[in-house]
């Protein structure tokens, strides 16, 4: 699994792109690619947990979603995660 750490700024462009982004995440959740996703409680960013084969798949996921290229959205980190409980 992989954790994508996202930071938000006040740029309004991200809010316009968010509905399509959330629809995409919902569709990928139905297939098992997105395991969990959501904003942090203070809306300073978000976390997405992916179940994909490797970093190249994470990069493909990010490249396919225009939300990650919007002003106000910054991917701060991508880390592999190996949970022992699911």
What class do helices, strands and sheet pairing give? alpha+beta
Number of domains: 1
Number of helices: 2
Order of helices and strands: EHEEHE
What value does the average pLDDT take? 96
Shape: globular
Query: The biggest beta sheet, please?
Result: 4 strands, antiparallel
Amino- and carboxy-terminal Cα gap: 11 Å
Strand order of the largest sheet: 2-3-1-4
Helix proportion of residues, in percent? 25-40%
Rg calc: 12 Å
How many distinct beta strands? Answer: 4
Can you give a write-up of this model?
By secondary structure, the protein is an alpha+beta fold. It has one domain. Helix content is 33%, strand content 31%. The protein has a 4-stranded antiparallel beta sheet with strand order 2-3-1-4. The protein is globular and about 35 Å long. The model has no long low-confidence stretch (mean pLDDT 96).
What is the compact description of this entry?
The chain is α+β, with helices and mostly antiparallel strands and 86 residues long. The protein is built from 2 helices and 4 strands. It has helices spanning 13-31, 55-63; strands spanning 2-8, 34-39, 45-50, 73-80.
